[in-house]
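Subgroup meeting minutes
Present: P.N., E.W., G.H.
Scribe: E.W.

1. P.N. recapped why we're keeping a running log of single-chain structure predictions: easier to compare across weeks, and new members can see raw inputs and outputs side by side.
2. G.H. added today's entry (422 aa).
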Amino acid sequence: MKYIYQKVDFFSDTLPTCKFCGSDFIIDNDNIIKCKNEDCDTNKVRMSHQKKKKSVLPEDVYKKYIEESSAFHYKYWMKKGFSEDEAKEHVKKNSTKAGIKGNLVLSKEGRRRTKLKDIENLILSGVDKKNAKKIVDEDYKSRNNGFKIKCWTDKGFTVDEAKEKIQHFQEDGRQKGIKSKKENLNYFENTQLGYYINQGMTEENAQLALRERQATFSLKKCRLKYGEIKGLKIWKDRQIKWQNTIQSKPKEELDRINKSKDATSLKAFNKKYGAEGDKKYEEYWSKHWKDSKTYSKEATNFFEKIICKLPYKLDYRYKNKEYFLYGEGKINFYDFTILDLKIIIEYHGIAWHPHYDKLSEDELKDWRNPFGDKWTKSEIRKKKLAKNKGFKLYEIWSDEDLENKINYLIKVIKNEYNRREV
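Output recorded in log:
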């Protein structure tokens, strides 16, 4: 018996059923209307006409239909007068264009399905499965990368036009970066000392963090990765290669590299300004200090409980606006400062700050501080500097009775406020 589905006719001795769900079709005379199962995928709008035909037509009829009507099949192009090789090139080109168009609007899952469809189309055109996957994978890696020529040639540009587009693309990105850095005077790369100071570290700790960041190819790391002997050889070879590369650069380039090193350190300021180095260094950080991102939430909650119980509008510096003092060639940040009253409060979480008067010498040695003795000296220096600058400094540890400490500090602040008002 003859049946017709979407203008494609075929013959079948048995009543056709849906190949997707197995249900019968609604048939009007010889015309197949749709699947009786309303939940079947063929009744959903998003399914393509091609897939709907696949659910109805016999396999040989569907294959012939694809060959005659799909621009993704090489026989479609051969019937238009192209050779087999030319026809296959047309299929590849159309698969790529369809993929690009879909990639711009589809979700991640949609892009995955589109990619699978591209592979399927290439297989239909005569390309074996392994090569079809390789072609599509390579295509997807470059099609949305504005720095690749293929990205632009696939959109209809010539190779020369594509190169010009890439140049504009690169220049546009460079200009945006320059503009961003000009607008944000506090901007530092993570290979600069200022980056770590802006994270709330003292200069001493920032130098340690910077040293760790720069040690991307240290002897220690090579030995851990490759073993004692091979690691040493790889490290030495790399050092020789690096030195040769540096020495081969022109003098002007070497001067520029040396100038850019530690440009925000005290040493660089002293070298540049001489006797005025210390003063210029302090002025620089007063102007360029960036909001801290590493403040303690636990400490912030403690300080805000104090502030909400005070009836005064004072200049509180805490959270991401920590106050700092400069002394002995170092920048020192403080957890909570009331500038009007010259009061500083340091909140110590016992996980990172030892309670000195409660620990024995052995316990202090075992204390797990990543910066060791240098950190301890830094804390002592901070306290001494604050007192020398006329600040009253109070220390709180997280294992103490915090409610009592809050009440105590409120009394201290009120007394100091009243004293100054008088």
